[in-house]
Amino acid sequence: MRAAFVAGLCALTIGAVATGCGGGGNGGNPTNPSPSPSPSPSATTINIVGQNGAQSFNPNPASAAGARMVVWRNSDGEVHRIVANDGSFDTGNIGPGASSAAVTIPASGARYHCSLHTNMVGAVNETDGDTPPCSGLYC
């Protein structure tokens, strides 16, 4: 009789533990699942190719016509940080082989530079064209 009591107590304990781990008895599924993240819009990719003035980026100038989103991919062996000349965006540090998060470019385009290597300058135009890559302090 004692063996039956112990066996029953063990079964009751195991059942309580299993129910407690199940997220409220609904199989572990949340009652209000989070929505799936929406896909990111297409972005123009600019490659960071080295420390060589306006030739530090490819393409330069770049066109963000339609997308207005830009990603910088660091193909160089140094860390870079791309900043808009007017302060409207800052990618944070981009390590070798890494890419920045997508940045929204103003409709009028943007001039930018590497804040770690200020001779590195570039531009994103609102349309394709031969606009000079930069003018002003960082050129």
Q: What features would you describe in this structure?
A:
The chain has a domain at about 45-125: Cupredoxins -  blue copper proteins (Immunoglobulin-like, Sandwich). Helix content is about 15%, strand content about 25%. The protein is built from one helix and nine strands; from the N terminus they run αβββββββββ. It has one helix spanning about 1-20; strands at about 45-50, 55-60, 60-65, 70-75, 80-85, 90-95, 105, 110-115, 120-125. β8 and β9 (about 120-125) form a beta hairpin. It is globular, with a radius of gyration of 27 Å. The protein starts with a helix and ends in a 14-residue tail after the last strand. Residues about 1-40 have low confidence and may be disordered.
